[in-house]
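Exercise 7.
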Amino acid sequence: YGEVTCALEPGEKFLTESGAMSRMSRSMDLKGRMMGGIFSALGRKIFGGESLFVGDYSAPDGGWISLSPGVPGSVTHHHMDAGPLIMTAGSFLACSPDVTLRTRFGGWRYLFGGEGGFFIEATGMGDLFYNTYGALVEKEVNGTITVDTGHVVAWDPNLAYTVTGMGGLKQTLFSGEGLVLKFSGRGKLWLQTRTLRESASWLSPFCSA
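Solution. The predicted structure, written as tokens, is:
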């Protein structure tokens, strides 16, 4: 589904991506919270173009909140009980307060590859929601796999990765593929079937004045 509605017990809290709320009950309170600490959040703002804050919603008397991501696609629930999860910056939608979010610099290649520059590492126990542009594809990796950076949503941290081009400089510049993430090891990898970059490229001829 393209949205999620969460019911909160009295006193319960919920963290959301800034601007993700579409509707809520009147009993909800909202505060802003810095994601990942002030320095990592500042780095995201300068280098990654992402919002500094998450919405910290609480329900003193109980209530509900509906969340909708900014891109059309699917919302997936992930129960955090089997270790950390790493997400691309635009994939996070919401989480329970026992889940800790930290930013991780993806390297200079990833920064200048147009995908935001930073990853989000989620740890702790609780509920995590992330969104995809298009449909979600889950892959079991046992060996190596190469994925276009725009199609990556999340992965197990025991998967090693490198950001690289498609072969040499000529292939990277003229193949139309740009940068890729090369994963190795054993674990799960979640992908999305569409990318904003390709959709924008497809739409651009129809948007001329």
